[in-house]
């Protein structure tokens, strides 16, 4: 239950003066739930210094400045396209104000010749003279109204002005309780020079002076508050998990060695280390919660399979959950080929299973005769029951919501869980993104994995690429052809248009798959390509992860300059899975910008997914890197992962120590931490508003 002191902050913003139903809708477009607290967390993007400068001589082109001068002249335009011009003089020189399509009488009333005026706006240089176009403020110095000394500038949406958002934020400051206890460690707060909580909010939304250092200290304070609250949640979750009991699955080294000895290759050191870490977790009675993160082709499935063997050897069941039917069937095929020869009973369960076949599988899961199952969301439907489920393995975990994983976990009492992801994340971000999961990283690739030769080509060489693809298909190879959009008028690089063109230009059947197709249609198109019934598959990024076609040797990506770096790396990972040389052709439309050039050069120079993730992080920032924002993994309101990594580390240590000292958070600091946790709880985990 939320502390009643916080109730005012979790009202919707129409509790603030001057905000009615129409403005509430606009704030909801901007803020989502649009509570007063959401508004206060909508921090300014920058601040404008509106203090009046001493002299026109101090003005620099490109800056926003506020000045005072005497109106020297008001000149009408000499034609319809020209602006009105107002000249101000302050004794040091002239400043020209330009107004396009202004009403003459209004200008005369605003700028009486000989009168003093204060104006504020952007300074530009035109024909050697300083000018300001359409000032933001026009004020009479004889009247009390003044521009704010410091004006916060916010992100906006249709129906909202900066002045409106700023006014609402200042009003919201009055609802911040003045009796909240300090939840930070007082020594750390003093060492960092951070202000109190309410002071930090005021320093950002209503700063008394233009002091960027003070504003950054205020932002840091709130970022640490958010980190501390989040890490306290993780620490509590770990502590709670430690009280639950899972089945202890004895180490099964001999059974696992039989599987490894049957392989045509030797596992990497990283795979061996991962298997040992997971085996140790599963041999204990505390539920395992581990993330297995590996680059494309790093061998996560083998590690997961050996974990499943440990469960099966102990008389329990393991369930692999994949986000699509194609991936689930692919996973089943791999597990079946690997484990069935050694006597393990492996099966699959997807939405396609119907009638007596489905009933037979349900019975096998319920009586325990099916030891290892690969499936989709169908695994956690109400009609599915397991005899002794002890291990849940979630593949491509970012495709599933927290609720999906939880529903599968509820099929047993405290099963172990391993989540796997082929999306490399910078090591500096892994703990922040994965929260209370222990993280294991596979940073080696199995021997014999083909290196994909990457080339960057302008789209003027399109016909050469088509000819090369045609030659490869005639040799029995296959190719992916990736397009950025499904169907755009007058754009031949859209998937629908490119498919239509390649049907006429290639000597093989050409498939098509994109996000607007029905799931059954997508699965059928992917299956046709996997089975070799189509030689080329034109697709959008729906094939970014998981599709395994060893015969695919060419990956063509059109308009590659528009894709994220890590996304390009994931797409490239779809080829080079067989024994033939593989190529990734990145086609761009000139001219290339600086960032796009860096992105494509990075991809051409390395195939290390973690190096690429770091580069993507630097180029695009933490919000968009690897699609984490879309996956709901990065939902911080204040924390800037690019510069607050040290705060996360400190907060993690601080929160774990606080929870260890006060597991129920009933002491003075514990109760204060509970308030911070309620304030900075991710939106998806908030309780219903009171």
Would you mind describing this structure in some detail?
The chain is an alpha/beta fold. It folds into four domains: 4-46 and 155-221, no CATH class; 51-147, Nucleic acid-binding proteins (OB fold (Dihydrolipoamide Acetyltransferase, E2P)), CATH 2.40.50; 253-442, Rossmann fold, CATH 3.40.50.300; 452-606, P-loop containing nucleotide triphosphate hydrolases (Rossmann fold). A seven-stranded parallel β-sheet has the order 11-12-10-13-14-9-15, with helices on both faces. The longest helix is centred in the first third of the chain and has 32 residues, at 212-243. The protein is globular, with a radius of gyration of 31 Å. The model is unreliable at 623-633 (pLDDT under 50).
